[in-house]
Structures are given as C-alpha cells and as structure tokens.
C-alpha cells in the first residue's frame, strides 16, 4: 500500500464527483424533496380520538374508563409508556393503583384530556413530562437518509467501476504500478466521504426547516451512518467486481436496491408484517441501518442497545468486502 | 547496442481464435521497432502481453534478461489504442494523478513542453481534440521517464497535420535514446519512424528487418509512371507494360536506361512520376492482399 497513490486516486475521485453538477444536485435535491413532500402529506393529525395510556389496564375498573371517544392503551412498563407520552403518541398516562398521572405540557391534546380526566376523578398526584411530538417526518428521516446513502453507495461505486472497466480507464490504471488494493480502497473511502458529507449536508440543512426530533447521540448516529454506508459500498463493489456490462450491473443493482427500499422499513414500520417478511428483511443491510438509526433518534438508544444491528452490519461488510476483492478483476481481456 | 527486450515463442489463444501464434523477436536499446499489419493481425495482443496487461498462453518475455515481473511497470511507458481518461479531471490533474503512481517521475514542466500540452492544461479531458488527447496520452506514457515506450496505433484517427506533428514528437523522443515499440497499420508511418519492422499477419511474423533493406531485398525495380496518351500503344505492347487507368506503369530495374530508351523513342516525359516500392507494396507481395483489405 503506497499512501501517495492512494491519496491521489482518492482526490481524483472526489474531484470527479463534486464537478459532476448533475449528479451532485440530484444527491442533494432528491432526499430534500422526499422529506418536504412527506411532511406536507402527513402534516395533519389523522387520529379521531384521544389516546390515554393506562398501566395494567385489564385489572382497572375506574369510572373514567367508561368515557366515550377515548382509546385506552394498556402498558405493562412505565418507562415505555412515559416515552410514548413524551413523543405525543399518547395524550395522558394514568397509573390507577398508585393514584398518579402524567401530563405532557408541550401537547395541546394532553391539556384537554387532563381537564376531562379531572372532571371525573380526583385525588391523583399530577406529574409532568416534557417532550416534543414525533412527527412522521422525524420517523421517516433516517429511512430517507439511509435510502439515499444506499443509492449513492451502490451506484456510485458499482456503476462507476463498471464504466471504468468498460471504457478502459481500469486498463490504463493497471498498466501503472497502482495496485488493485490501492485503487479499491481509494474508491471505497472516497465514496464513504462523499456519502457522509452529502447526508450531513441534507440533515443539517433540513434541520433548519423541520427541527428534527433527536433523543440519542449524534456521534452514535454518525457511527451507524459510517458503518452502514461502508457495508453498502462493499456490496456495490461485490456486484461490480467482474462485469463489463453496464446494463447487467445496472439491473443487478436495481434488483438489490428495490427490495431494500420497500422492505427495510424506510416508509412504514414492519411491526405488523408477516413473520417471513420480517425474516427476509433481516438479510437486508438497509433494515439494520434504518432500525438502528431510528432507535437512536426516537428512543435515544445507546450503542449497546443497537449492538445487534452493528454486529450484523460488520459481518455483512466483511463478507461483501472479502468476496468482492477475491472476485475483483481489472478485466482487461476482450 | 545491447538487447533490451527478447520475446520467445509467444502464443495467445482465445477459445475461438489463435491471436498470436508463436512469434519471437528481440529489440535493441534505442531502436524504434514497428509491428505492422492489418487490423486483427495480433499486434495489439502481442504488445499487451509484453506490457503484462494480458496473460500469455505460452512463451517468454524478457526485459534486460529478466522475465516480465511486477516491477516492470515502473520502467515502461504505455499508450493504449483506446483509453478513456477520468471525466471531469483537467489535463494538469490527470498528469498529477499519474505522476503519483511512480517512484521516478519526469519533470512535469519538461513533459508539458515535450508533448506540447501548454495550451490546454486546464481543460477538462472530455473537451480535448483528437490530437490533444493523443498528446496527453503520450505524456502519460512518458511520465515515469521510461526507457521503453509502447505506442499502440498512436496516430489512428488523426488528421494529416496532427499525424505529422505527432511523428515529430516521436522523433524527438527517439533522440533521447529511448526504445520505442510501435504498432501501426500505416506503412508510411513505419517508414518515417521505424528502424526495424516486423510484419504480422494472422498472428505470425511473416517478415522482419530494416525497412529499406527489406524493400531492396524484395524489390529490385522502381515504378515509373507516364500519362497514358504520351506513350504509343505499340511501345506498351512491345514491353508488356501495365496500363493503370490513365497512366502507364513501367517496371524498371535501371532508371537511367529506361529513361534513355524512352527519350530515344521520342516519348514526352512531361508528367513523369517515379515511385520506389514501399511497405504497402511489400505487404501486398508477401500476403497477396493489400493491408487495407
């Protein structure tokens, strides 16, 4: 590994990307358009009734529970229910056995439901929760960023290498002392830098507009982004390791990216999906990226809480990278 | 002169094609060696095996008596027939990129002046004209100051002016005592540049030597042409000269004698044209078909 050669190829690839205005603007505009679109489509509150969380609901028989047009949701764990209240998923949380309730002072619905509650029941201790509402745009944000990362990683590496191979750029490079390892690691790191840079620009830029919800650590989110895009780039390398045909590789990349886009929980939660679908989704790297990022953003998950996803992503990256470098060919024969 | 490259019994077989069929030759230091032949003769396959770009089926390649190895690429320069360059990079950036690959690099300013790149250094690779592109590719071949330079059809697709300019560049490089291996299907290019040629056809070398010596060996005669109307039919029939369109072709082994004979017959010499045989004629004679077919 000669560091000068590596740096030179890394720089050249970055220059190439940032001078390609059309691709650059698309990488920026596409995720922003999606976010803006979704925030408009889902801006209204679709719920007809109020939702109140109750600890151990089946064992309770208070008169308040007879009130119409309120949906009562059972919770076993106090912490989980408190998180839901802080995120405005429920409007009030009541613990009848301990004679206490929680209200979210940043929620208008919570204020109204408290008035109804106090009209029926008394003698309860009032406790206060804080917390911004999680909107759909907050929920879908990690999905859209990860999807954009996926397209940029898969096509930015896979397609470009096949094009280089087809039009003999690779052949010209092979005629120099540049090694395959130097070339590939420069491609990978250059794309990793580009993907992270573009995602950060989109996140920070859109944050001025949407004030995204964020419960966890930005460092952890960055880590998931880095590992996730590395994994996807390695997948792109593997797909582009031998072929000279842009059509074939384009098809393969689509074959891989479409199921990931639909089944990785980018747009909707897989919670209610059939179990075979959930199992299939476990094999898609994007599932683990989106789930881990979403847990950090909406639940404030720590690294140990998402360690399963990090492990799976690391294993997948290693498999893709090893297979990709084993199969890689400059492919200079006709 | 010492021998820098030796090729022994080189073979390249593809599933359906014998591209190179057991050829051997050696090249001396400072020589410009031309591999000539029509498209598909096996020239490019031969030099790409010599460059280590494609594996050999069998046979040996030696540089200074050392077999071809990973280190060889530090000492040779290559200009491919078809090469795309990275899009969006300028000429200057492309030179910097390639310079980073080698231990020993030629002075970039000298390279720019040798290859005449000064006028378009900041231009995007995609916007170069054919001649500018070839000059940049030549510069990339020279960037590591190699002792041996491979040029694969360097002037194909250039206009006559650009070709002549490019020949001058190659002549300048020859003066630096570099060894050049050149493939071409232009015989005039080979006559201009090459000290030694090997003529290939169907994967084999069919003739090899110094161009002038080969021509002397195969053609004792020169061709004299006269406008058809100036030569009496009787004279043509007597000497069994060929009529080519509106010209009469006279094959002569002694020009003075033939001219004296023509004058004694009161043939007007206006529009007379003398041609010695060239490599095109040699190829035609050796293979029975023209190199352009």
Question: Beta-strand level of the residues of chain A, as a percent range?
Answer: 5-15%
Helix content of chain B: 25-40%
Number of strands of chain A: 5
Radius of gyration of chain A: 25 Å
Largest sheet of chain B: 6 strands, mixed
Query: How are the strands ordered across the major sheet of chain B?
Result: 6-7-8-3-9-10
Number of domain modules of chain B? 2
The quaternary structure here is heterodimer
Number of strands of chain B: 14
Fill in the CATH topology of the largest domain in chain B.
Rossmann fold
CATH-level-2 architecture of the largest domain in chain B: 3-Layer(aba) Sandwich
Helix share bin of chain A: 55-70%
Class from helix and strand fractions of chain A: alpha/beta
Number of helices of chain B: 10
The ordered string of helix (H) and strand (E) elements of chain A is HHEEHEEHEHHHHHHHH
- Label the structural class of chain B: alpha/beta
Distance between the first and last residues' Cα of chain A = 29 Å
Whole-angstrom Rg of chain B:
23 Å
Q: Extract low-pLDDT stretches of chain A.
A: none
Overall description:
Chain A is α/β, with parallel strands linked by helices and 334 residues long. Helices cover 63% and strands 8% of the residues of chain A. A five-stranded mixed beta sheet of chain A has the order 2-1-3-4-5. In chain A, strand 3 (92-95) and strand 4 (100-104) form a beta hairpin. Chain A is elongated. Chain B has two domains: 3-208, 3-Layer(aba) Sandwich (Rossmann fold); 220-276, no CATH class. Chain B is built from ten helices and 14 strands. Chain B has helices at 43-50, 91-99, 108-114, 130-142, 160-174, 187-193, 211-218, 233-239, 255-264, 279-287, and strands at residues 3-14, 17-28, 32-36, 58-63, 66-67, 76-79, 148-152, 179-184, 196-201, 204-209, 222-227, 242-244, 247-252, 273-276. The model of chain B has no long low-confidence stretch (mean pLDDT 88). Chains A and B meet through helix 1 and helix 6 of A and helix 2 of B.
């Amino acid at each position: 590994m000669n560091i000068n050669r590596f740096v030179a190829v890394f720089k050249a690839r970055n220059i190439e990307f940032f001078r390609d205005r059309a691709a650059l603007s698309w990488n920026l505009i596409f995720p922003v358009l999606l976010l803006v679109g979704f925030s408009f489509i889902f801006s209204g509150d679709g719920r007809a009734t109020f939702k109140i969380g109750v600890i151990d609901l089946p064992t309770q028989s208070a008169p308040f529970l007879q009130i119409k047009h309120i949906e009562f949701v059972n919770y076993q764990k106090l912490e989980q229910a408190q998180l839901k209240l802080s995120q405005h998923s429920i409007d009030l949380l009541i613990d009848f056995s301990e004679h206490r309730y929680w209200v979210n002072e940043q929620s208008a619905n919570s204020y109204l439901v408290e008035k109804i509650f106090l009209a029926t029941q008394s003698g309860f201790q009032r406790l206060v929760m804080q917390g911004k509402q999680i909107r759909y745009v907050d929920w879908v944000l990690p999905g859209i960023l990860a999807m954009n990362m996926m397209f940029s990683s898969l096509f930015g590496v896979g397609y470009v290498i096949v094009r280089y191979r087809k039009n003999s750029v690779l052949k010209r490079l092979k005629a120099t002392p540049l090694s395959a390892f130097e070339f590939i690691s420069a491609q990978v790191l250059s794309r990793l830098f580009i993907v992270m840079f573009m995602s950060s620009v989109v996140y920070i830029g859109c944050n001025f507009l949407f004030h995204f919800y964020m419960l966890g650590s930005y460092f952890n989110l960055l880590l998931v982004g880095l590992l996730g895009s590395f994994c996807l780039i390695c997948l792109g390398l593997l797909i582009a390791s031998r072929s000279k045909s842009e059509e074939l590789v384009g098809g393969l990349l689509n074959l891989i990216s479409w199921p990931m886009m639909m089944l990785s929980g980018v747009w909707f939660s897989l919670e209610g999906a059939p179990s075979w679908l959930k199992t299939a989704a476990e094999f898609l790297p994007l599932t683990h990226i989106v789930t881990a990022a979403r847990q950090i953003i909406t639940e404030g998950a720590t690294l140990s809480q998402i360690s399963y996803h990090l492990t799976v992503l690391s294993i997948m990256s290693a498999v893709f990278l090893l297979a990709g470098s084993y199969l890689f060919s400059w492919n200079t024969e006709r | 002169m010492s021998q820098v490259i030796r090729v022994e019994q080189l073979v390249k077989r593809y599933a359906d094609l014998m591209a190179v069929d057991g050829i051997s030759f050696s090249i001396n230091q400072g020589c410009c060696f031309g591999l000539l032949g029509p498209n598909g003769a096996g020239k490019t396959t031969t030099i790409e095996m010599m460059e280590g770009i494609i594996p050999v089926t069998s046979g040996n390649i030696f540089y200074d008596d050392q077999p071809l190895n990973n280190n060889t690429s530090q000492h040779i320069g290559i200009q491919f027939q078809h090469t795309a360059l990275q899009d969006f990079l300028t000429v200057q950036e492309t030179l910097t990129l390639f310079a980073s690959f080698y231990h020993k690099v030629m002075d970039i300013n000298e390279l720019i002046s040798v290859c005449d790149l000064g006028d378009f250094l900041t231009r995007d690779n995609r916007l170069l004209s054919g001649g500018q592109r070839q000059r940049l590719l030549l510069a990339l071949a020279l960037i590591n100051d190699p002792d041996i330079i491979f040029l694969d059809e360097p002037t194909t697709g250039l206009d006559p002016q650009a070709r002549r300019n490019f020949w001058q560049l190659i002549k300048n490089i020859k003066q630096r005592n570099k060894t050049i291996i050149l493939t071409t299907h232009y015989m005039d290019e080979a006559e201009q540049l090459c000290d030694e040629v090997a003529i290939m056809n169907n994967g084999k070398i069919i003739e090899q030597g110094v161009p002038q010596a080969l021509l002397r060996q195969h053609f004792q005669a020169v061709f004299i042409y006269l406008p058809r109307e100036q030569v009496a039919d009787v004279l043509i029939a007597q000497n069994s000269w060929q009529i080519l369109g509106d010209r009469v072709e006279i094959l002569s082994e002694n020009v003075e004698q033939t001219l004296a004979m023509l004058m004694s017959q009161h043939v007007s010499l206006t529009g007379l044209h003398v041609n010695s045989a060239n490599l095109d004629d040699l190829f035609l004679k050796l293979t029975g078909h023209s190199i352009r077919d």
